[in-house]
Amino acid sequence: MAAWRHTAYWKSSDYFTQYRRYVQERARDYMGRTEDCADISVLLIINFAAEKGLPVTFTDGDGVLYCSKAEQQHPSRVLRTLEWGDGDQAAYAQAIQRRISSSNLIARNLEANDIGPQPGDLMIKSDHTALVFSWFPVPAASSWSHPKDADFVAGKIPLFPGQEIARKQLDQLEYFRQAPSDVPDSMGYIDYLNHRGEGKQRAELIYRAPVSEMQRQGLKFMKYNADVLRDWENWDGKGAPP
């Protein structure tokens, strides 16, 4: 009946902290994947939840629920109902990816992270989503170095050349957003998993991105809200959610 076997509840342990560590450890494995920006960003929480036996529930722009404990969306729609088979995690993920966009992630599935970007947060605006997998707080001037700085100095990872050029560099999947020699950003740095879309159909890893620059571009840092992480303790997934 469900997309996977559900054996745990988010509130029974500090699973969201575990999810953040999971993203920090696993996001690099998604480099080169072809899912678009929002699709690849939500895939990690789906995979984490399935591994831990946790439920997740996404809501589309029309208020339709896609709960992993169920076998289909609720409510159903004539000719537009998406279903997933018993134990079919891939079909569930595909349903989410078909119906959940950046705009309704913001509207219905996320909330602001007021303490700043952390691994597992989405860096998002209405037409683009990326997944933060590392956060470096305000650096202490010259005492701070990024773990990949040596690769930049050695010429192994280039500086980000701008949107249009990066889109054409089909085999270049890692960039530095700011050079180590530049003045440290007062708001700290993030690394993020990004899919550029048109032209380059493979996900990139972007390192040393200044938080203030991302905010100037209209991007917000948001975390999953309580509705996505709802446990549905008194519902077995059959029929409509209570």
User: Count of DSSP helices?
Assistant: 7
> Helices and strands, in N-to-C order?
HHEEHHEEEHHEEEHE
CA-CA gap between termini:
17 Å
| Integer average pLDDT | 93
Largest sheet: 7 strands, mixed
**What would you report as the Rg, rounded to the nearest angstrom?**
19 Å
Principal-axes shape call: elongated
Give the tally of β-strands. 9
Description:
A seven-stranded mixed sheet has the order 3-9-4-5-7-8-6. Strands 1-2 form a two-stranded antiparallel sheet. The model has no long low-confidence stretch (mean pLDDT 93). It has two domains: 10-110, no CATH class; 115-223, no CATH class. It has helices spanning 15-26, 37-52, 89-99, 102-109, 149-153, 163-168, 211-216; strands at residues 57-59, 65-67, 110-112, 122-125, 128-136, 174-176, 189-194, 204-210, 220-224. Helix 1 (15-26) packs across helix 2 and helix 2 runs antiparallel to helix 3 (89-99). 26% of the residues lie in helices and 18% in strands. It is built from seven helices and nine strands, in the order ααββααβββααβββαβ. The two termini are 17 Å apart. The longest helix has 16 residues, at 37-52. It has 242 residues and is of the alpha+beta class.
